[in-house]
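Researcher: We're teaching a course module on how sequence relates to structure. For the next exercise, students receive a sequence and then see the predicted structure as tokens, so they can try to spot secondary structure elements on their own. Here is the exercise chain.
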Amino acid sequence: MLTARFRFYEELNDSLPEEKRKKRFAAHFPGPVTVGDAVESLGVPAGQVDLLLVNGRSAEFSRLLQDGDDIAVYPVFEALDIESVTRLPDRPLRDLRFVLDVHLGKLARTLRLLGIDSLYRNDLTPGQLIGIMQREGRVILTRSRELLEKAGVTHGFRLRAIHPEDQAVEILVRFDLCYAARPLSRCLECNAPLEAVGKVDVPESLPPEVEKNYDRFNTCPQCRKTYWEGSHVERMNESVARILRKVRKAREPRGDTP
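Model: And here is the predicted structure for the students to work with:
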């Protein structure tokens, strides 16, 4: 018997019984089954599905379901259909990545802390932002309506929050990105994914107390910065936990007011 957890999004919930709509639920299967067949057995036609994430990674319908898998099932990516200032092409972005305007440097660092791909430079012009969006399939993040109204902008989001932590919560809620969070997996300085290395392979000199007390390190293959689990990691984990608590609270259903 295989057991996996499923979460269906947006209009896909119309095909589910009410008790399974808009929530994560467990489903059981007597033997080997593909993810696509499992989805259809739950009542959702494969033709309505645009994106499957299995354990946080994009997957094909033909992938064999494994015991304990966590599957997120999406229709056309409604999260990008934001408002009139955002004009979308016929097909959605499948892997959300961001490029931030020059005023959002602290937000870029916060999103990188969460492991979310966030390109930022403090010298990017509006034209360069739009070019990066078009070439790399990134979503522009900004607080400027005027930027998103420029010709050529097809994917963008205008932030309402002001504090970087609140902005990160706004993004995670609006784009339903909790599944994509991989805290402490990206370089805070340059956004590249970190690589685990042994002490002998650390590319820079370490302070004597660090070399003595730590054996596990991550390094950035791009800027060569080295990270280890010092006291600063505890503070960063507290920041991550605080953000995710706010996200969960923001997503809680609100009761009717008397």
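Model: If you want an answer key for the exercise: The domain at 2-74 is CATH 3.10.20.30 (Ubiquitin-like (UB roll)). Residues 76-94 have pLDDT under 50 and may be disordered.
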